[in-house]
Amino acid sequence: MIGVTILRMVSGRVVLLFVGSLIIFAAMNLLPGDPATVMLGLDASPESLLALHHQLGLDTPLPARYAHWISGFLHGDLGRSYIYDVPVSSLIVERLQSSLPLIFLAMLLSLGAGIPIGVIAAANRGKALDLGLMGMLQLFKSIPDFWLAMMMTFLFSLTLHWLPASGFPGWENGFFPAIRALILPAIALAIPQAAITARFMRSSLIETLSQDFIRTARAQGYSRRSALWRIALPNALIPVLTLAGIQLPVLVTGSIIVESVFSLPGCGKLLLEAVNQRDIPVVQNLVMMIVTAIMVLNVLMAALVRWLDPRLGEECS
Amino acid sequence: MMARRNYTLWAGGILLAAVLFPAVVIVVFNGDHAPGIDVMHRYATPSLSHPLGTDPFGRDLMVYVLLGAFNSMMIAALGVALATIAGTALGLIAAGHPEASPSGSTRIIMGIADLGLAFPPVLIAALLVTALGASASGEILAIALFGLPAQIRITRQAARSILIQDYIAASRLAGRGTLTILRTHVLPNILPLLTVQATSSLALALLSDAGLSYLGLGAPPPLPDLGRALASYQIHVFDHPMLVAVPGLTIMLLVLGFNIFGDGLRDSLDAAHQEPNP
Amino acid sequence: MTAVLHVRALDVQSAVRPILHPISFRLEPGKILAVTGESGSGKSTLALALMGLLPPGFQARGEIDFEGTDFLALSEPEWCRIRGRKLGMVFQEPMTALNPTRRIGSQIADTFRLHTPLSKSEIRAETHALMEQTGLLDAGVSERAYPHQLSGGQRQRVLLAMALACQPSVLIADEFTTALDARTQSAMIALVTRRCETHGMAVLMISHDLGLVRRHADQVLVLKDGICVEQGPTTSVFDAPAHPYTQALLAMSLHGAARTPLTPLPVFRATA
């Protein structure tokens, strides 16, 4: 029965992705501005413009261009970058080496710090510890992540010299140098999200602890502590997973900005360079790829939540 | 509800006023253009004439930062206003008749909401800037589009909880049209919730604005801007940490102000709900 | 007869006011004591005080003597060894009293896991037997079912199974049949009374259903605003209520002496 709901959800997302691809394509191809003019400069001759148009496939009708792009996208052929003149896919794959680990690490840190802090605050609800933690979280939630990144470079890299301030040595130079380069960006990215996670975890756990089945468990012989950890926490974690799914696009945005602060050669940097140089194939495919990745991960997260919460598995959406 | 002292509300309000009031004063007396460039007094240390010193262009840092805060606030407010109006309208339409199975328009609107979740503001801004170049209106649009899905969902959910009440059915039986019911029963009831939502959206919008303008995807110069200021001052983090600390702290205070204010609003709303109806 | 539970001058205070004024009663093995009164009279507070599960800010005083131990002097770990093993409790709201994300078999087995050294397979066998006794298997309910797949009556059976698992000497049943239809109600009561007879389990039954109280309780205790206004054997309380409040309560229902008893209607068993 879970399968049916998930299947329906997946088909819904496929339709949405199609609409999304149309929007991205329209933004890149219908709005004013001619990439050929940008590439060759305003004083380019009409002949060379025409030649470039042909070379870029800009002289074919729009539907054909869309069909060409999307079928290429589905087959992993993302076209060639106007600026670098290399396949877009190879550019993206190269940049994913730092972007993916960064987002993954930040998500891990956000959940790894946010969940325990939220549980501690909920377990000490109303006490000084809870109030102190909540105040701190409110503050962390309000910090712009890229500014936090700058302040952390100031402290940990420039003053204490613990971690590199910028750049990425690549994985081929060993695991630890690469991780060392990512740790500060990941922490900066994770702290505001961890604060949001912790606050959500706290209220979810408090809400769960007030449910009747906690009293049933206590009447059965569970101690206050084991009822919290073994009965309430698993239930309270389910909405936190949903939140993590929603945080993913926020982390993607944040990673693009934080990569810029730390000069990490990731997808964010690639996107910004492409935007500034109007490298349309790169922007178009990279945006499409990020949107697809977010949607796929959202569906996976929703499937996980449905699997964990049997009530959702059977209800029709 | 009003008799209860709401310290959170006050704390948030004071934080916001501390940043926004001087900003408005400067805008009223000096206009919103950036202070003049004065190369003779670059990197000045704090003094009476320049309370926070000057920036790499000799501009008064405090004035520049306050003007930046004002501009960020305007962009965030316009973006949130757009999202709130459009999202509320779409959310009300999508609420429809809760008893009936979802109609075509509901499905389409919820599809928009789902799609929006996958388009973080930086991607929308990237598309818009690639196609049209950087502009304040583009940034406002990006922020509005980002806020739209949450606004639609929240409005729809809140409206549905009202629409399933018995007195709505009674109104329908009395011959009131859907529009009248939405205007007289639903909207007034969900207004407090929408206010809370708008407050927390403002906090998010300010963060988005800062990030976008840091990346150069926000409003272009000459409007003073905190994110752009941070981008250009970043290299000075070691020799002039003040230049990086002040704009960032200003953003943080504004965001914190809205977050705390929003919490206070929510608390007083909950308190109002818990009190028995007369 | 020796009482299994002997309550002496128990009172409960909240931070601002007394919830329950000093109350004394005895629970005897195999007998049912009903606590009745209107909502807000302190019935549920009494139940929670006996379970040691009063909400924070509530303070119980007096003496609850259970087989020689005073509950009010127990430490939390000692409490956890008694709750679920010696003392079972069934709650009012079967819809929310079960954990929605866990299978019912596992929730019933929890009582064994917490209080017995049984192995996994022994626990599985015990759980199965318990589901058999409580009529869940007959209704086609599997151990692997989730609470939302069950009817209200079936959920209440699960709760009862959880409470009865370790054969407690006392069962506290807080309005546990109120949300059920009449047929399910009598089936549940039958399950409980059978336990009283076979295992000598004592029951503290909280109910505002005077018909139910009159049919099944041996003793009655009437609460009003946290004060025990009347207590005694069911028949004497129902036939000759002493306190004006009890008289009024009985007058409002059809079950007291104030009205002539109705001729019982013949019961038709539905054969489903």
From TrEMBL, chain A:
Belongs to the binding-protein-dependent transport system permease family. It is found in: Cell membrane. PANTHER family: DIPEPTIDE TRANSPORT SYSTEM PERMEASE PROTEIN DPPB-RELATED. Its main location: membrane. Residues 96-301 form the ABC transmembrane type-1 domain. It comes from Gluconobacter vitians. The keyword RNA-binding does not apply. This is ABC transporter permease. Keywords: Cell membrane, Membrane, Transmembrane, Transmembrane helix, Transport. The chain crosses the membrane at residues 12-31, 102-123, 144-163, 175-196, 236-262, 282-305. It is a multi-pass membrane protein. InterPro entries: BPD_transp_1_N, MetI-like, MetI-like_sf.
Automatic annotation (TrEMBL), chain B:
Keywords: Cell membrane, Membrane, Transmembrane, Transmembrane helix, Transport. The chain crosses the membrane at residues 7-29, 63-96, 108-128, 242-261. Belongs to the binding-protein-dependent transport system permease family. It is found in: Cell membrane. This is ABC transporter permease. PANTHER family: OLIGOPEPTIDE TRANSPORT SYSTEM PERMEASE PROTEIN APPC, PEPTIDE ABC TRANSPORTER PERMEASE PROTEIN. Pfam families: BPD_transp_1 (PF00528). Its main location: membrane. CDD domains: TM_PBP2. It is a multi-pass membrane protein. Residues 69-262 form the ABC transmembrane type-1 domain.
UniProtKB/TrEMBL annotation, chain C:
It is a peripheral membrane protein. Its main location: membrane. Residues 5-250 form the ABC transporter domain. Keywords: ATP-binding, Cell membrane, Membrane, Nucleotide-binding, Transport. It is found in: Cell inner membrane. InterPro entries: AAA+_ATPase, ABC_Ni/Peptide_Import, ABC_transporter-like_ATP-bd, ABC_transporter-like_CS, P-loop_NTPase. PROSITE patterns: ABC_TRANSPORTER_1, ABC_TRANSPORTER_2. SMART domains: AAA (SM00382). One of its GO terms (molecular function) is ATP binding. SUPFAM superfamilies: P-loop containing nucleoside triphosphate hydrolases. It comes from the Bacteria. Belongs to the ABC transporter superfamily. This is ABC transporter ATP-binding protein. It comes from Gluconobacter vitians.
